[in-house]
Amino acid sequence: MKYKRVLLKLSGEALMGNQQYGIDSSVLSNYSLEIKSIVNSGCQVAIVIGGGNIYRGIQSEESGFDRVQGDHMGMLATIINGMALQSALEALSIDTRLQTAIKMEQIAEPYIRRRAIRHLDKGRVVIFGAGTGNPYFTTDTAAALRAIEIEADIILKGTRVDGVYSADPEKDNNAEKYDNITFDKAYDLNLKVMDLTAFTLCRENKLPINVFNMNVKGNLKNVCNGNSVGTLVTL
């Protein structure tokens, strides 16, 4: 494995599969098998997963909710997804720990950096729930922050597209894919790699990002082996 410790960022929407809402058990199972493949190869894995398949905080304002209240509802959605992923991984005999930025001791451990690192060193998969615990911050930002805190080698952003493009490849057939790109160029071209706060955190801390299609079998392991998959964003 090229990378000893990675942080895998998954979107909540990806868990929907072809559904309109909720969790597609087949997607959850496939992701768990992909994660197991790199754990068994000796890679230390931390995971941040979004909650958009259940609730997006930004929807709250459109519905008349207070934004802060809505963001907290979104954080709880990420914990539901984290619990589902934890169960799927443990069904494959992968030892996991779910840590949350909002205290709920009956369900998960509170996030403690040193404890998270100790779990990783023991080969456990650590799932970080509830984002940063603060409103107005996305799970992208939570992923960047946690990756920096646990000294991950890279952020692996698993999406449904196979990298970073000059335009939305689902809407523009002429969109150009980048195999490698610098932070500065991605910023200048206004490419949506991650939200700007997360992107800036990674850039300032020299933390590379690899964007790839999580739905292709073997992609995650290939990325961890250092193969050219998706788009690598570096200084």
Task: Summarize the helices and strands and which ones pair or pack.
Layout: E1 5-10, H1 25-39, E2 44-49, H2 59-62, H3 67-90, E3 96-100, E4 109-110, H4 113-121, E5 125-129, H5 139-149, E6 154-159, E7 164-165, E8 177-178, E9 180-182, H6 183-188, H7 196-204, E10 209-213, H8 219-224, E11 231-234
Parallel strand pairs: 1-2, 1-6, 2-5, 3-4, 3-5, 6-10, 9-11
Antiparallel strand pairs: 7-8, 10-11
Helix pairs in contact: 1-3, 5-7
Explain how this protein is built:
There is one protein chain. With 235 residues, the chain is α/β, with parallel strands linked by helices. The protein has one domain: Acetylglutamate kinase-like (Carbamate kinase, 3-Layer(aba) Sandwich), CATH 3.40.1160.10. It contains 8 helices and 11 strands. The chain has helices at 25-39, 59-62, 67-90, 113-121, 139-149, 183-188, 196-204, 219-224; strands at 5-10, 44-49, 96-100, 109-110, 125-129, 154-159, 164-165, 177-178, 180-182, 209-213, 231-234. Strands 4-3-5-2-1-6-10-11-9 form a 9-stranded mixed β-sheet, with helices on both faces. Helix 1 packs across helix 3 (67-90) and helix 5 runs parallel beside helix 7. The longest helix is centred in the middle third of the chain and has 24 residues, at 67-90. The two termini are 22 Å apart. The relative contact order is 0.16. The mean pLDDT is 94.
Report how far apart the termini are: 22 Å
Number of domain units:
1
- Give helix % range: 25-40%
Computed structural class: alpha/beta
From the 3D coordinates, which CATH architecture would you assign? 3-Layer(aba) Sandwich
Strand content: 15-25%
3D shape: globular
Classified by CATH, the class is Alpha Beta
The CATH topology turns out to be Carbamate kinase
Let me know the number of strands: 11
Average predicted local confidence, pLDDT: 94
What is the CATH homologous superfamily assignment? Acetylglutamate kinase-like
Largest sheet: 9 strands, mixed
Sketch the topology as an H/E string, one letter per element. Answer: EHEHHEEHEHEEEEHHEHE
- Number of helical segments with 4 or more residues: 8
